[in-house]
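The instructor's notes for this session suggest beginning with a concrete chain rather than abstract definitions. Hand out the sequence below and ask the class to guess, before any prediction is shown, which regions might be ordered.
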Amino acid sequence: MCAASASSLSSLTTPFNHTTDFTELADHCQCFADELGACSDPAHKMALYGRLSACLALLQPTLFEPVPLHLQPGLTVDTLPTRHPAFEPDADQLADYCQFLTQLLLGGSLSAQMENTAEALLQDLVIYFVDTLKAPRWLNTPQGRVAIEM
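After discussion, reveal the predicted structure:
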């Protein structure tokens, strides 16, 4: 069962719609994903999946729109960040993701559009996986071979 905190209950009733700012929609997506990670109740998970899907459906069409003027100050910094968002699963996780998508596609239960999306994601993940497995790990130097810091 999910932790029955006020935040988990309110996440299922928090209103959002096509007028909700993309930054707020992104926060909702993170909230739903975080809650899913802590949830074991199947009914609550299904409700969270539905909320996440609805939020993503509203967010997706806004991805290439200009950032509204009123949101620009919140996305402006005085110094460059030292950290940037990155997708860095370890090799074992990446192999699991690839296997999961392969099994999902083998099941043949996806709509044609979702199958195309899953295939594209699988292709990108497999390419990334292979690139990470075959990436150089050492560098020859005049002092000998040294490990490349990743």
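Then share the key points. The helical segments are 6-11, 22-37, 42-59, 91-107, 112-133. Strands lie at 138-141, 144-147.
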